[in-house]
């Protein structure tokens, strides 16, 4: 997978817009992600927190199919600092 350089959350479209080192862009539909992984209010709140505070990590977890595992760990934000 190409290196992910930049991400930002676009509130108007409810998408995370990602740009890769080769110039490729990708838009992640956050409603679809929330429908897939946001089974509880706590998980939905965590997804929102990630969107606003860590869009790059959000995109990486979606692309690596790690979001379910992350949410199952209890949503400890300090894990993202490593």
State the helicity in percent bands: 40-55%
Unreliable stretches, pLDDT < 50, 5 or more residues? none
The portion of residues forming beta strands comes to 15-25%
SSE run: EEEHHHH
Backbone structural class: alpha+beta
Shape: globular
Radius of gyration: 12 Å
Tally of separate helices: 4
Report the end-to-end length measured between terminal Cα atoms.
Answer: 21 Å
Largest sheet: 3 strands, antiparallel
Q: How many beta-strand runs?
A: 3
Mean model confidence by pLDDT: 89
Strand order of the largest sheet: 1-2-3
Key descriptive features of the protein:
82 residues; alpha+beta; three-stranded antiparallel β-sheet; 4 helices; 3 strands; 22% strand
Word description of this protein:
The chain is an alpha+beta fold and about 80 residues long. It is about 45% helix and about 20% strand. It has four helices and three strands; from the N terminus they run βββαααα. It has helices at about 30-35, 40-55, 55-65, 65-70; strands at about 5-10, 15-20, 25-30. Strands 1-2-3 form a three-stranded antiparallel β-sheet. Strand 2 and strand 3 form a beta hairpin. The two termini are about 20 Å apart. About 20% of the residues are buried.
Can I get a quick summary?
With 82 residues, the chain is α+β, with helices and mostly antiparallel strands. 44% of the residues lie in helices and 22% in strands. It has four helices and three strands; from the N terminus they run E-E-E-H-H-H-H.
